[in-house]
Give the backbone structure.
Amino acid sequence: MSEVLNWFTVALAPAYAAYTLAALGNAVIERSGVLNIAIDGFFVLSSAFAYTYAILLSQVLGSGPLATYIAIALTALTTAVFYSLFTTLNTALPVSQGAVGLSFMFAGYGLGAVVGNIGRLVFSIQRVRVDYLGVTGWGSAVAYVLLVAVAILTHLLLYRLRLGVLIRAVGEDPRVVSQVGVNVTHTRFLAGLIGGLAVGLGGALFTLWRIGGWSQGQGLNHGWLAYAISIAGWRYPLLVALVSVFFSSLYVLLPHIQRLGLPIEISMAVPYIVSVAVMVLVSLAPRRGSILAEPRALGREYFREERA
Amino acid sequence: MSFLHTPILRVFNIVKRFPGVTALNGVSLELYQGEVHVLLGENGSGKSTLAKVISGIYLPDSGSIEVAGRQVVFSSPADAIRYGIYYIPQTPSLVESLTVTENVLLALRSYSLLAGVGRVREVVREVASKLGTRVDPDTKVSELSYTQRQTVELAKAVLLGARILIVDEVTTYLPRVVREFFYNYVRQVREGGGSVILITHKISEAVEVADRITILRVGTVVRTLERGEFNVELIRKLMFGNRVTSSTVEQPGGPTPGGGGEEVARLENAWARDDSGNLALRGVTLSIMRGEVLGVVGIAGNGQRELAEVLVGLRGLVRGRYYLRGADVTNRGTGTVRAAGVGFIPEAPLYYIFSGDLSLVENVAIASRWGPVIRWDSLASRVRKLVDTYGISAASPRAPVKTLSGGNIMRLAVARELELSRNMLVAYNATRSLDEAFSEYFLNAVRDLAQRGTAVVYISESVDEVLAVSNRVAVISSGRIVGLFDREGVNRDTVERLMVM
Amino acid sequence: MSFLETLYQTLISYTGLLEPLIFLAMIGTAISIGFYGSFWNVGAEGQYVMGMVGALFLTLFSPLVPLFEGGGTVLTALLKVLVVLFGGLLGVLWSLVPGVLKAYVRVTEVPVLLLMNYVAYSISDYLTAGPWKGRYTYGYIRTDLIPEAARLTIIPGLEMLRYEVVVALVLVIAFAYVLLERTEVGLRIKFLGTNPVALRASGYDERVVTLTTAALSGFVVGVAGALRLLGYDYRLPYNIGDGKTGFYGYTAILVAWLSFRDVRYILPSALIVAVLTSFGYRMQMLLKDLLPPGISAYAISLILMGVTLVVYSIFRVLRDYSMRLVVKP
């Protein structure tokens, strides 16, 4: 019993926090009709920013939790800015969403490498100590409560507020929505901003809580793991937070379960195989017309001026 | 009524061109407070384009707009709404998968982004009952009827405090009772000091409600009539010019004689879903004979689109069967259907049948079975021949199709698809972006095709066109065939009454 | 040594450039074919590794080599062709999984392709450390070398080139050109990429065309992987995902993009990318005392890729659409 408790409080919490936040952010962005294939790049980028911010802030403010918390907040804001640029360009340019998404994904990888290495460069010269978030029972409990709160807030945002109605509407039928006077680009800009905050928080916690450090390529593919969770929860915030418990556990456990009898090399790939399997299963489930349905404009180019 | 004060809306010398067509050629119009101003004209006369310019959907190429004496530029519908101008199009601008409340909230700019959905629900209920209907605010729009949807549009207009309401062909096909209800609302707007621009192509309707009527023809204003001058014969003359047309129903060439009676295609109790997963066809049974033109008419959004897609194999059936020349081709896809010699001329060729980024030659090549290796030179000369025959203006056969004007793209569609229609042609709102001359040419070509033994399904929103070209007329409403007549045995009124059932 | 000197050295050391140039061009062509059909093949890295795995299997663990060994030039040539084709087939296998999922289950192909790259690394590493672990490896974890008979022929004077690889490159580019410009299959792929509804309305099943696109793209990448193994590596290393592939599968995406999806521009774009990456490596070596090891050619090429793609997209828009300015009074 205490082992189970220990698992949830200590081992799972950091991973759950990182993946769930990124998955919730993805839900908001994709509900607005923007295909978020840049998520992995953004996740890499935000985990690098978190590290570098933490190093720089620790140098300025001295080591301590304050620097870490500010680094988390700054990372979220930075990611939000990049993400809003992404969703805006995706809407304003008549270029396929696949092309724009790939561009930002690679740009995120590359920029992430540069940003993280700047932090490491500073570290190699200054040797500042970063106060990474520790794992305590109480800390984890607070984190779980906050995560549930974030999930509920995301739900309220999408389904109870006018902004959420706008976001879902531009994800369904941007042409009609623009006819009633709503600016599609602005709405998607806001969706990118809000979703980006969550993805950035996820990336920051990945570096500053789950890993506690940074190395080249950190976060690579973990953005996709979050993406799969988001799909598995049908981009519906409450469901996303719920299924994330299961998938985060899988991602954490699978590479280490030797009892599965899998060779170590293969078991490292198991989370990826699981993610693909999840996306397949979810796509197979019929759900047209329901609240769980895929946004109809998802991935489609949006042209503003056209003759009806 | 006194028109001495400044007009509430004044548009001056508006020009709007689309590639290949001048839709508005120097149109001026004045709208006064408290009047119902009818824009009257044939299909393609520029009424809707003018409405879209006034409501900020289109940007005019030149000309000016003044609201209450102040010059304005609308670069989006939001700008127009800010000045109290609200446009209700024939197809309601509602998001199908959202509820009524959500759709209303969407449009209410006075509410902040953080306003709750709950706050609007009661307001919606109130307005709906004031308008005299009951609509559950939590119903999804996809579950509403056409009339209910237009009521939601009206509710939106009320809540937005519209001072100038533009109603585009909304009332044209509504049954008298519902129309009365709309007129009632129009009067309310007028009494409250608002003004209404009502767009129609029906003279009787115009005379019935208008304070003034402005008649448009081919993108220019012919004349504006005051109430005292209304005279059906005069209006008719102004609308149609010197064309010897006494009634819009009269067809230029007369229907084709019936075919040999051999059945080419048959739908049996066909059910199909639309893109949102709602049932769009509900048990359609139709039989299409060799040598006939079967017209299918209905208000937009009643299953015509899905019917056309089912007939060419683009959309599967969830129930029922589809036979082509005796063979069961249900859910066999476009390959089987096209191989059976079925042509398809849809309203938006760049969406349905062409790739705008690819050239004319490539777009012709994809539809003709050439075998594995393509000989572009011989294909190019064939395309050149099509270009000449159909009078398509294109820079070269290798130019991307999207560089062509809308009308020329449509001509290319006609050129390519007529050749492919060995056994059947499915036309869906085909004349929408064609100019008048080519429309006529096209209708003749369709009749010729039928006379040579091809079965034609002619799906359209225009009653006039369907009556002009068809041997038999089917009326579609809510995904059902609600009436099927021989051309001789039916008149316009019957068809229109059935369309709104 | 200065920045300019490094650049100069990069440019004149053409032999060092030829090898990446050829592989980038070959894989870039394959990715281009995918792009034409809107199949965003970011999984070339995995298909490339699978091509290597296939080639190693056939040369080391099948009776094929003894069968053909010592049989004269024709038979050895045939052997190499068979091995390369088999590598291509494994590439197809790897690209068809996301292809099938995209066509029939409507799963976005990008994450699947990327994740499968890592599965390919895993499989290769597992085989290398497990069943295929070599006996003559001086304690390293790696496979044995493939037999001499299966190795490609070095061009005298151009140590980084192999006759077979050059021939293959010519064939691949010619194949792609003919496919896309002369055949109906190519035309279908172009329709799939520009308007899949129109493709369907013309009577073709866009799912089948998606599979075709994925398979053709994966095949060419698999071929490149097999050639790599037969001509250069001769064995599979452990931790192959640590840059031992040169990340050609990723950098070739930039090649495809720079070529404006036109096969004729593949070689020049491959040259640009090859210069950039080897320049990146040289800079890295040069600055390794100054910089932490992370700011690598890898990072530099990723940034270049992203930025190029964004800029390219914007330019394309400006070229295709004339923007209109509205002046408010």
Remarks:
- Chain A has one domain: 2-219.
- Chain A touches chain B at residues 159-163, 165-166, 168-169, 172-173, 176-183, 190, 288-289, 293, 296, 305, 307 (CB under 8 Å).
- The two ends of chain A are 64 Å apart (CA to CA).
- DSSP finds eleven helices and no strands in chain A.
